[in-house]
Recover the amino acids of this structure.
């Protein structure tokens, strides 16, 4: 009886192995997803937590590549109704969020900008952003 099951299982595997696969259909490839077009669904990790939280989520693009999506959340209803604001690891993204979002962020922008200049931060790495968000959370 045991040999019957082994024989049957091997036969099924052999038949599956001999089956012909369909040729891959040609399809047009969509534009790769970027941080600007990705939609966060659940956050993988919080890089900094505090009054202002920096989150990082990994989203799978069209292929097997993963794209990192960063967002800021402030524990204040006046800040985008507590909805995350997507940011890119760029100086332009920093300036845009910290000069146009709320008066609280704009008021702290000069101090943060001085920190960027003094420490020669490029704002293209997570560590640069972590440094800024930690400083922001410690400012009164």
């Amino acid at each position: 009886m045991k040999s019957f099951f082994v024989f049957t299982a091997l036969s099924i595997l052999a038949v599956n192995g001999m089956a012909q696969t369909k040729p891959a259909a040609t399809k047009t490839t969509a534009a790769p997803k970027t941080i600007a077009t990705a939609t966060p669904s659940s956050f993988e990790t919080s890089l900094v937590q505090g009054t202002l939280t920096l989150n990082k989520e990994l989203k799978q693009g069209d292929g097997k590549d993963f794209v990192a999506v960063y967002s800021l959340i402030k524990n204040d209803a006046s800040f985008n109704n507590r909805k995350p604001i997507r940011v890119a690891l760029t100086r332009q993204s920093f300036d845009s969020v910290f000069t146009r979002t709320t008066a609280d962020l704009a008021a702290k922008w000069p101090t943060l900008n001085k920190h960027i200049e003094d420490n020669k931060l490029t704002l293209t790495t997570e560590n640069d952003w972590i440094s800024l968000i930690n400083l922001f959370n410690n400012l009164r």
In short: The two ends are 77 Å apart (CA to CA). The helical segments are 2-18, 91-100, 103-119, 126-138. Residues 2-18 form the longest helix (17 residues).
